Amino acid sequence: MATAEQTPRFTHPAARDTCPFAPPTAYEQARREEPVSRVSLWDGSTSWLVTRHEDIKAVLSDARFSSDSTRPGFPFVSEGARQLNTGQPTIIRMDDPEHARFRRMLTGEFMIKKVEALRPEVQRIADDLLDKMTDGRTGADLVHDFALPLPSLVICLLLGVPYQDHDFFQECSRVLLRRASTAAEVAHAQGKLADYLFQLTETKRAQPDGSILSRLAERGDLSTEQISGMGRLLLIAGHETTANMTALSVLALLRNPDQLAHLREHPESVPGAVEELLRYLSIVHSGLTRVATEDVDVAGVRIRAGEGVICMVSAANRDEREFPEADELDVTRDARRHLGFGFGVHQCLGQPLARLELQIALGTILRRLPELRLAVPFEDISFRGEMLVYGVHALPVTW
After folding, report:
1. For residue 140, what are the β-bridge partners?
2. Using one digit for the tens of pLDDT, what is the confidence trace for 221-280?
3. Phi, psi of 278 (to 5 degrees)
4. Contact 13/286 with Cβ under 8 angstroms?
5. What distance in Å separates the CA atoms of residue 179 and residue 122, rounded to the nearest whole number?
6. Sorting pLDDT into bands at 50, 70 and 90, what band is 17?
7. Res 2 pLDDT > 80
8. How far apart are the first and last CA of the chain?
9. For the CA atoms of 267, 269, 272, 273, what is the dihedral angle to 10 degrees?
10. For all residues of the chain together, what is the average pLDDT?
11. Neighbours of 17 (CB within 10 A)
12. pLDDT tens across 198-227, in order?
């Protein structure tokens, strides 16, 4: 049985050296040969890297692996990521029962029935953005003109955040999610965003408006700091993930014209295609982090209490044992077992909203832009390899 004395196999994050849609070769190799591997991190510390689908499900559903980033041994993928976990904790860095208590406060906001009621409004936003993008033009940056503003407008509407402040919170998000950000840079951006949401929450207390922040403020059992922390998580996750999934999905479909043609001919297939794209792209390429609270065996490897674990969902979603021909994009595949939203009690709270936005975004693009194509060579596309949430910086297209 392997133990902590095992020599680190490689450094995390590994360099991306293959198809930009795929995980680095090192993770693919680890999944096939040594699915629970020792890796070294940026600060010289070591962690366990878990890469197989079944093993990651086991870790993420096991209460002996903690999400609490204040525990000794918790792995951080960068200096900025460590700094980001200071201050007011969010529910993704809590364990039960505290995690469950705070999560219940938000669960009702993202129930499928409630999210589905938003479909007409989200469709209106998508159509308005495409109207503006195509008005008198034959080309645009799909990230700037559509993929980023769509989820930003929606999450601002739900939270009660003024959309005119989007440049501010999007820039804060970029600093907080950039791997190379220093602790000082993250602390500064984190402080600015916390102050902004603190003041906004205080305004909601005085002038309720029915938004999520307002309803949280009306509860009476949460401090302004706690509401600000919850708002920060929802605001960042609510626009960064969907924005990058939208643009990257469009690019992946343009690179797979047979799959694109199938969706144009069968628009009813879009919901299933969204699941396949979530599997195929897996934009959280830095992995999901945990720390063992006691000794646990995973796939024949003894992980000791106090040792960190990084679950590489991007590698797990390419596991051939779970998804035959996993490196192929197949929009007709039943990909609902993917781990793009995580697994277990910390599974993404906002996944119904993300699915709705992605279905509408892709469906609307397919319907309204039948001649959509890249405006630059594929080799000129700049990918967000330096960010904690993967995607493209810009996507120049024409039609």
Report:
1. 397
2. 999 999 999 999 999 999 999 999 999 999 999 999 999 999 999 999 999 999 999 999
3. -60, -40
4. yes
5. 31
6. confident
7. no
8. 57
9. -60
10. 95
11. 9
12. 999 999 999 999 999 999 999 989 999 999
User: Sign of the C-alpha dihedral, residues 253, 259, 263, 265?
Assistant: positive
| Extended beta strands in 299-386, E state | 301-303, 308-311, 373-374
Q: Is residue 295 part of a domain?
A: yes
48-78 confidence digits (pLDDT tens) = 999 999 999 999 999 999 999 999 999 999 9
The domain in which residue 46 lies consists of 10-398
85 band by pLDDT with thresholds 50, 70 and 90:
confident
Give the gyration radius of the chain's Cα atoms.
Answer: 21
369 lies in a domain? yes
Q: At what angle do helices 257-265 and 351-368 cross, to 10 degrees?
A: 90
pLDDT of residue 16: 81
In a domain, 47, yes or no: yes
CATH code for position 52: 1.10.630.10
5 found inside a domain: no
Using CA atoms, how far apart are residues 177 and 40, in angstroms rounded to an integer? 21
β-pairing verdict for 308-311 and 46-50: parallel
List the beta bridge partners of residue 66.
291
Is the peptide bond preceding residue 97 cis, with omega within 30 degrees of 0? Answer: yes
In whole angstroms, what separates CA 20 from the centre of its chain?
Answer: 17
Any idea what DSSP says for residue 212? H
Nearest CA among 290, 269, 389 for reference residue 340: 389
CA dist., res. 268 & res. 263, Å (int): 8
Collect all residues with Cβ–Cβ distance below 8 Å to 297 and sequence separation of at least 6.
1, 303
Quote the crossing angle between the two packed helices 224-254 and 98-107, to the nearest 10°.
Answer: 70
The pair of structure tokens assigned to 372 is 């959509």
User: If we measure between CA atoms, which residue out of 65, 114, 59 comes closest to residue 349?
Assistant: 114
Total domains in the chain come to 1
Quote the pLDDT of residue 12. 92
φ and ψ at residue 117, rounded to 5 degrees: -65, -20
Residue 15, token pair as written in the block: 């360099």
Tokens representing 247?
């643009």
Element holding 96 (H helix, E strand): none
Q: Are 13 and 75 in contact (CB under 8 A)?
A: no
Query: Cα dihedral sign for 256, 261, 267, 272?
Result: negative
What is the residue type of 383? F
Residue 244, both tokens: 């990058």
> For residue range 328-347, what is the model confidence (pLDDT) as tens digits?
999 999 999 999 999 999 99
